[in-house]
Each structure stands twice: as structure tokens, then as C-alpha cells.
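To the wet lab folks,

You asked to see what we're planning to order before we commit. Fair enough. Below is the target structure as C-alpha cells, and below that is the sequence we designed to fit it. If anything looks off to you, flag it before the synthesis order goes out.
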């Protein structure tokens, strides 16, 4: 075992503080990653504050991890010391179920092992990227192309794949009209990726405060959902609406913005239940769907796509000692558009 520095929530809703954790020895098919940057995802806050149910504490959040391979096990074939690598929301799966065999490890029948706030196959708690080092099996590490800076790449391991996967699955591309609800950590990547895929992109945000940013990121149009006229003007417009917000929506109002047989896809996860009038779906043969992250193969595809198109996250790099302040700023929508921890400061 190796002792490394980390930032952890000692208990639910407690401020994060500097501590040490144990990392397992490097096994035959493992790599040791010298973590350079770790993105702060809104889901880190949900989990550190027990918003999604009972967590495992002390908790070291972080599933947007970018770093350098520092050591490899004797059986490793995909990576060598010095390679640029990333780790996202999961670090293991059974590898034998139908989902895993199809490259959809995120839907593993036995449950994938989350990067943090989970128990690994040996029953030990997992600790995430707010730390200096991580040991992971090579199968769940991603190659970060040279065309993306490591700090801008870190958020792609969650925000990037969480938006890329549904945009690809529901056919965002030339001739399609895509709306992105919310211009935050997820939403700004959705705009970039949908634009690069060739879709006509509209941002739907509470106000026009970030309109200039949205247009610079690749949006063709920008509307304020706080203005009732928006829902009148855009009725029946979109093939796909991707909701990235973690607050309940008026689903009836948003579904009415879809064309016939359009789909509203949710990647944001509110802590509270939501309600839905089924006539919103029945009329117009519309659909409502959810989407998680992608599998390892699709995540690598996303990273390669972003490198080709010059896409990285819009970030604010912070020291580890600023993490609690960053959490409050995320909740206040005071970040453009992803905080990234420089782990050299841990």
C-alpha cells in the first residue's frame, strides 16, 4: 500500500479537508497515475453532501482525472511510463455480462465500480481524483491525445462523455436542431460538441446573461427560459433537447418544444422526484429519456473527436485549498465553466 495526500469530506455535508489515503499496490494489469488535474463536477457536491443517498465517508471526490503514467504492472500493454492518461466515472466492471461485452461498462449487470463513493470488487472503498496518485486497471484508463492540454482534458472525462454519448446516440448532426438546456459545466461542452457534429444549436438558459459566451462556444441561437415568449416562439422546433440542469423542469413546457417524434434527454439529475403529464408524450409521439456516461471505447472516441476539433473544457484552475469555496461558487453558478484542481497544491 502507498500513502498519498488527498482532499476528503470527513462526513456528509462537512467541508473538505486535507488528509492521507492508502492506494493499493500496482498489480499485474494496473497503472499508477501521477494525477495532475482533477475537475470538480456538480455530482461531487451532490455526493459529498449526501444529496443522492447515503455516502461512504471519508469521501475523496473526483472523477475527472488527468495525469501521467508513473508506473506500470508487468502485464500492462496499453500504456507506458510517461503517457498522458485520464480516468472518468468508473474504474472497473465485471467484464463478462452482455453490457460489458458490448462496450457499455457503464451499464454492467453487476454494477460498475465508481471511481469514488463505491466499494471495489474486494469490498474496499474507492477514492477519487482529489488526490496526488491513483492506481487503476489499464482497461479503465483513457489515452489523452496530445492535442488537448491536460487541465482542459480533465473535465472531458465526465462532462465531455456525458454530453457526447447522447448527442451521438440521438443523431445530432447536419440537418438536426438541438437545444441545450443550461450553460454550465455540462452544457458548455454540449454546445461545443453539438456544433462540431454539425447540428444547429440553441441554448435555453434562465436568462441572457451568458448569451455572448454561448454564441462564442458554437451556439447558433440563445433564448431565455424566464421569458414565456420563448416557449411560444420555439414550439415544435427541436429534434433533440439535452437537459444538463440538476433542477426539476416543467417537462410539459419543454416537451412542447420538440418536433413530432423528438426526444428530451436528461443528463442532469435532480435530487428530488419530478412529475410528468403523459399527454406531453402522447401528443406528438414524443419521448423523454435519460443518459449516463459512455463506455470506455466511446469515451476514447470522444477524446479523439475533441482533439481533432480542438475542443477542451472552459476552465478555472484552482488550488486544492479553494475547493470548498469552489463548491459554493458552483452552486451559485459562478464558474465559467469548470473548476479544475491543480493537484500539485494538495
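Sequence we intend to order:
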Amino acid at each position: 500500500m502507498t500513502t498519498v495526500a488527498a482532499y476528503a469530506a470527513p462526513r456528509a455535508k462537512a467541508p473538505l479537508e486535507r488528509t492521507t489515503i492508502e492506494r493499493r499496490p500496482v498489480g499485474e494489469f494496473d497503472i499508477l497515475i501521477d494525477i495532475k488535474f482533477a475537475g470538480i463536477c456538480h455530482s461531487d457536491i451532490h455526493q459529498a453532501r449526501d444529496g443522492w443517498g447515503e455516502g461512504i465517508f471519508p469521501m475523496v471526490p473526483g472523477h475527472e482525472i488527468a495525469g501521467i503514467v508513473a508506473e506500470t504492472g508487468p502485464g500492462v500493454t496499453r500504456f507506458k511510463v510517461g503517457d498522458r492518461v485520464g480516468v472518468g466515472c468508473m474504474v472497473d466492471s465485471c467484464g463478462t455480462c452482455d453490457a460489458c461485452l458490448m462496450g457499455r461498462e457503464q451499464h454492467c449487470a453487476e454494477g460498475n465500480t465508481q471511481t469514488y463513493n463505491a466499494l471495489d470488487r474486494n469490498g474496499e472503498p474507492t477514492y477519487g481524483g482529489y488526490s496526488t496518485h491513483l492506481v487503476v486497471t489499464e482497461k479503465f484508463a483513457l489515452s489523452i491525445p496530445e492535442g488537448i492540454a491536460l487541465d482542459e482534458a480533465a473535465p472531458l472525462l465526465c462532462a465531455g462523455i456525458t454530453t457526447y454519448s447522447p448527442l451521438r446516440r440521438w443523431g445530432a448532426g447536419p440537418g438536426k436542431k438541438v437545444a441545450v438546456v443550461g450553460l454550465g459545466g455540462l452544457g458548455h461542452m454540449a454546445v461545443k460538441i453539438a456544433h462540431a457534429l454539425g447540428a444547429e444549436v440553441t441554448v435555453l438558459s434562465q436568462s441572457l446573461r451568458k448569451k455572448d459566451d454561448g454564441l462564442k462556444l458554437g451556439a447558433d441561437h440563445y433564448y431565455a427560459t424566464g421569458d414565456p415568449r420563448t416557449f411560444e416562439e420555439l414550439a415544435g422546433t427541436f429534434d433533440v433537447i439535452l437537459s444538463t440542469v440538476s433542477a426539476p423542469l416543467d417537462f410539459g413546457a419543454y416537451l412542447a418544444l420538440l418536433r413530432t417524434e423528438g426526444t428530451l434527454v436528461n443528463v442532469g439529475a435532480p435530487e428530488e422526484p419530478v412529475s410528468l403529464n403523459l399527454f406531453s408524450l402522447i401528443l406528438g409521439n414524443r419521448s423523454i429519456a435519460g443518459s449516463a456516461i459512455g463506455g470506455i471505447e466511446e469515451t476514447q472516441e470522444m477524446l479523439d473527436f475533441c482533439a481533432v476539433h480542438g475542443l477542451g473544457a472552459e476552465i478555472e484552475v484552482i488550488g486544492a485549498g479553494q475547493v470548498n469555496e469552489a463548491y459554493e461558487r458552483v452552486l451559485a453558478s459562478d464558474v465559467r465553466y469548470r473548476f479544475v484542481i491543480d493537484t500539485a497544491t494538495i
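Structural context that might help your review: The chain has eleven helices and 17 strands. The first strand starts at residue 2 and ends at 8.

Thanks,
Computational group
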